[in-house]
Structures are given as C-alpha cells and as structure tokens.
Write a structure and sequence with these properties.
Blueprint lengths: L2 E12 L4 E3 L2 E3 L2 E11 L4 E7 L3 H9 L1 H4 L7 H9 L10 H19 L3 H4 L7 E3 L4 E2 L13 H15 L3 E5 L5 H14 L4 E5 L6 H10 L5 E5 L4 H9 L6 E3 L6 H9 L5 E4 L7 H13 L3 E4 L6 H13 L30 E3 L12 H14 L32
Parallel strand pairs: 7-8, 8-9, 9-10, 10-11, 11-12, 12-13
Antiparallel strand pairs: 1-4, 2-3, 4-5, 6-14
Length: 408
C-alpha cells in the first residue's frame, strides 16, 4: 500500500453558542481542517487538524512530494520525513504530522480489517468516560448566556441529565479568580459525589494560583489544571497546595516530560493526539507516565468526529487512564462524519469497532460546512468578540466583569 495523494478541506462547524476562555473565545464555530490520505489500493484514511484556511490546505498539499509512494505502515519513517527535530526548528510540522498519522493508522486498520486500537496494543476498555467541560459563554439564537453561578449549575445539570456526566470541568480564566471560585464551589455544592476540575489556562499569578488552590483543597477535585504558566510556576504551586496539578501546556513533548519526571511540576499529563504529533506518541508518553507514577488523561483541543475517534482509540488502550477525558464535543451542533455526532451513554462514548478509526466522512456535511467556512471565514481565537480591543496577558490582570450581562 502506497500513498498517492493528500487532500485537505477546511470546515466551520457551528457550536451551540460562543464559548469564552482565558485568551478570548470560540466565536460560535470550530474551524478544522479535514485531511484525506489516498492510497494506491483505493482506500482513504482520515485525519483532522485544528484551524485551517488556504495556508493549512497549502501546507498539506506541500507534503505530497514528501510522502508520495510512502507506505502508511512505516510510521517511524513518516515521523522523520515530516517532523525531523532539527528541521522542525525552522518549520514545525507537529500538527501536520499528527493529522497524517491519524490517516495512516486509519488506512492500516482498513487494510487489515481491524480497529485502530488493535494496532495500538488492544483495548482494555470498550468506552471512554468524559467530563462535562463547562464554559462561560455568550448567548446565541438558541441558547442563553452562561455567566452566573446559577446559570452554570443549571447548564451542568442539563448536561448531566442528557449525557450522564459525573465529572465536571470548569474552563476558567475569564472572570476574576474569586468570582470563579464562587462558581466552582457552586458546582461542588450542586453535585455532591461528583468529581471536579478547574482550568484557567495558566493566566493566574502565582499568588492567585496559590490562593485558589488552597481554597479548593477540601472539595472533590480530580486536579487543578494549569493554574499558572510554566513548569517552574507549577512546581511552586505544587509545593504549597494539596491538590494534584495537571497540564496540557508545558508537558507536550518528551523532553518536557523528562524534565517533569526529574523535577515534578505536574502530577497529571493531559495527552493530546494533535499536540504530541499523533496517537502513537501519546501511547509512548503514557508508558513513561505509568513507570514514574504520573497520572494521564486525554486532552481536548476542539475536536470533530475524526479527532474524537483518535481520542477514543487512545483512551481504549491505556491501562493507566484513571481520569475522565475532556471533550468540547457536546458543545457542537453537528459533525462531518456519517450519522452526525457520536452519542454519549452514562457519561462515556463507546470506542468505534469498525476498521481503522471507525468513522467515515459524510460528503454532504463536509460540503455544507466547507461552504460555511467560505462564507464566514476564520476568527481570532485569542480575541473576545464582546471585549473589543482586549487581549490576554500572562498572568492576566484584566478579567471580564461578571456583573455585565451580554444579554442586557
């Protein structure tokens, strides 16, 4: 089996409402690049990457000369063809590599008639549990804003009824820390027995991170995720707070993982199949974490169904996955795969059982959302549509005013 072509299509898939985060917002849609790797036997493997547009599509087209006639089973040589570590000092192709690796694993599974998880060591679970992943959000034509503790709790309660979540993650860093602490405590009061996690995307100062961490020590926390920036900042918090710390920002490659093993800053490593350059690097990293008693979880970077499938196959094969995975997925209105969005059951999503990644594209949906992208274009992830002229700093000093309603 040889690669003969690579095609990339940018899509815009609507969200239920615009989602606010510490750096800005998702402006009511996710922009993703769908990658199709065609082999000489007629099979097509699927990949996905965040962001898109002409530059992303051109970047994938530029890989065709690198990969024409490459055997998809040769994943180690694929890594060096695309992301040689010294060449990547000038042209970092980690996320391009991830999307192509997804597609090659999909091709391998289709060729052999087995699901991707069987190529990664075999499943140890048939479904992967997920956290609710709660955002403060702006209103849309269908959904009210989420700004107050009461609104947040009601939203979490609705998600729990619909999907069965028993773990709740609050994406913070939007409002002042004391206000978000009030919101976090409201979740704890509303869902006794459920687990909690908080992620302000590293925008708190060290003093704020310490104060927040100490204030939640008595709650049912999974972990405190990236309260401050950097390995040294996390170490300073970890030394003084009795809550496990997690990161998806500063342990995203093996050199950083080695540093975290030698001088521990994070207790839990959130593995992202895109950030790490594919599913296989995440499996390797999980093995290192198992050896050194670091926890692992599965990170979400705003997935559609293709990347979600990679997260599910990753979660299926990790014996040391003791935390629920993150996913923005329930925030989407639709998907580009056949049958639309994959369904939750009791807070989990079953691992696909079909060959390869186990999902296939719906051509009508792809065409519809490619047209929506051409109509709306992209958006600046690190800007907030409700706060013109604002931009985030680390640590941040200019938080949104929780008294200001977007609906007023």
């Amino acid at each position: 089996m040889k690669i003969v072509d690579i095609r990339a299509t940018t899509v815009a898939v609507p969200l239920e409402a615009p989602l606010r985060h510490s750096n800005g917002a998702h402006w009511g849609r996710f922009i993703r690049t769908i990658v199709e790797v065609e082999a000489d036997n007629g099979l097509v493997g699927l990949g996905e990457m965040g962001g898109g547009g002409e530059s992303a599509e051109a970047a994938f087209r530029a890989l065709v000369p690198y990969l024409k006639d490459h055997d998809p089973f040769q994943l180690e040589t694929l890594r060096f063809k695309i992301a040689n570590p010294t060449a990547s000092l000038y042209n970092n192709r980690t996320q391009l590599l991830a999307a192509v690796e997804f597609a090659c694993i999909d091709l391998m599974g289709q060729q052999l008639g087995v699901p991707a998880c069987d190529l990664l060591g075999g499943r140890v679970r048939d479904a992967v549990p997920f956290a609710s992943y709660l955002f403060f959000r702006y209103p849309s034509e269908r959904h009210a804003e989420i700004r107050t503790p009461g609104q947040l709790v009601e939203h979490a309660r609705a998600l729990k009824r619909r999907h069965g979540f028993t773990v709740h993650k609050l994406k913070g860093g939007v409002f002042p820390p004391d206000y978000e602490l009030e919101c976090y405590r409201a979740l704890a009061d509303a869902f006794p027995g459920d687990r909690l996690r908080y992620d302000p995307n590293a925008v708190l100062s060290l003093a704020e991170g310490l104060r927040f961490g100490r204030a939640i020590e008595g709650l049912d926390n999974d972990y405190l995720e990236d309260p401050v920036w950097g390995l040294e900042g996390l170490r300073a918090v970890r030394e003084q707070v009795r809550v496990p710390l997690a990161t998806n920002t500063v342990v995203v490659n093996f050199e950083q993982l080695a540093s975290n093993v030698l001088r521990r800053a994070a207790d839990v490593v959130l593995l992202d199949t895109t950030f790490w350059g594919g599913i296989r690097p995440c499996v390797k990293a999980a093995g290192v974490c198992e050896t050194f008693q670091l926890g692992v979880a599965v990170h979400s970077s705003g997935e559609l169904g293709i990347q979600l499938a990679t997260m599910l196959h990753l979660g299926a094969v990790l014996p040391n996955l003791t935390y629920a995975a993150d996913a923005h997925y329930h925030q989407l209105r639709d998907d580009v795969i056949q049958g639309g969005r994959l369904a939750y059951a009791d807070g989990a999503i079953p691992v696909p059982t079909g060959p390869g990644l186990g999902v296939r594209l719906d051509p009508d949906r792809v065409a519809r959302y490619a047209e929506l992208y051409r109509e709306l274009g992209g958006y600046p992830y690190d800007r907030d549509p409700g706060r013109p002229g604002w931009y985030a700093q680390v640590p941040n000093e200019r938080f949104a005013d929780p008294a200001v309603s977007a609906e007023s």
